[in-house]
Structure formats: structure tokens, C-alpha cells
Amino acid sequence: MNDKVFTKPIKKQFEFDEEVAAVFDDMLKRSVPFYKESQKITEFFSLKHLEDGSIMYDLGSSTASLLINISKQLKCKATLVGLDNSDAMLEQARKKCLALGANVELENADILEYDYKEADVFVSNYTLQFIRPLVREELVKKIAASLKKDGIFIFSEKVISHHPKLNKDLIECYYDFKKEQGYSEYEIMQKREALENVLVPYSEEENIKMAKNCGFSHCEVVFRWANFATFIAIK
Hints:
Blueprint: H1 18-31, H2 35-48, E1 55-59, H3 65-73, E2 79-84, H4 87-100, E3 105-108, E4 119-125, H5 133-146, E5 147-160, H6 164-180, H7 185-195, E6 202-203, H8 204-213, E7 218-225, E8 228-234
Parallel strand pairs: 1-2, 1-4, 2-3, 4-5, 5-6
Antiparallel strand pairs: 5-8, 7-8
Helix pairs in contact: 1-4, 2-3
EC number: 2.1.3.-
Pfam families: Methyltransf_25
GO molecular function: carboxyl- or carbamoyltransferase activity; S-adenosyl-L-methionine binding
């Protein structure tokens, strides 16, 4: 289904409800620049770290597209676990897994409180930015503590620049991208208002500093387009 969520006046802040879940895959393709490419990088590094007995967690797994793609390429007996707190998203994910025969475990869970097993890979695609800054670092510490030595945390985030002019231009560049995907100025404005104070992005430097402060030995960007970036943090 095509994303037309913001063609009408908004009445609430953005949330991952049934209306959003129904069009989420289309929303991602048209709202996140080079989403397919960043996902392929995530799949590549995830698969390199998975072996028999490995566990991989996808935090905020939404419709499980990433885990389904990884399950198709998996050549070992690893456990793929998708965690999300949206029933609507999980319903869509279960339908896709069933239709495609994907061996993926899906759970309705609070990723801040979840009792993680020792894992080789954690992934978070545009999820950290929706977690309040006060507790975001605690989650990253929990992820680091739950990873095996040399395990990886791959996370994609919208990022900001602390240079006012550059930050303004990055946003304008992104809005031009959205217009090219068929979104109107009205839809862009509506979504921006709905996400205000819900999505709180960090800069590239702040994300790397957070990862290192939370127990990762190394963190760097492996893909970036304007104000969207994919990071890999190594335990």
C-alpha cells in the first residue's frame, strides 16, 4: 500500500499504529534515502558475524524485512529475534514471515527492559532516535554488555549537524529527496510536526561518542547520505 498517512491533518504525535504499519514498507522506501543500500550493508556485516548457535537481535524490527532477508541468506543455525512494542507492526511482520517461510522469532517487548541472551549481533534501524536521550545511553550500555567479545552493533540513525547553516541545508536536501519520491510539501510539513519531540537525533560525533562511552572499543560510519547514517560499533 502507498503511504498517504500525512495527506490529511494530523491529530496526534507520530506513533507506529495500524495505519502506519499498513504502509510502513512504502514509507521507508520513500522516506529514507538509499534505504535498500544501507540494509544490504547491514545484512552483509550481520551474516559475517553469525555462525551455528549465534543470536541476532533486531531492535524495533517493524515488519521484519531485514530479518527475513538475512534468514534467506543464512547458511548456519543462528537464531534471529525481532523485538518491537507495536502489535500492528508485529502482525504485519508475522504475515510476511509466514508468507515467505522465514524462520524468525518475533516478540512484543520493551527493548529497554528485555532480558537479552548473549548475542553476536545487535541491529537497530532508526530506533535509537525514538528513545529519550536520558535512557538512550542506558540501552546502548545494555547492548554492549549483552554482546560477545568482538560482537557488533549496527545502527542507522537520522543525524544532525551542529553547524546551523549546514544543518539547514541538509534538511533542505532531504526534503528535496522526499518531493522526488512523490511527497507533497503539505505531507512533509505534517510529518515534521508529528515527529517533533518524538524523534530526537544526535550528530554523527555524538553517536560515536555514545557507543564508545557505553563499552564499545570502536565505532564508525559505514554509510552516509546527507543526514542519514549507518554505524558499526565493535565490542
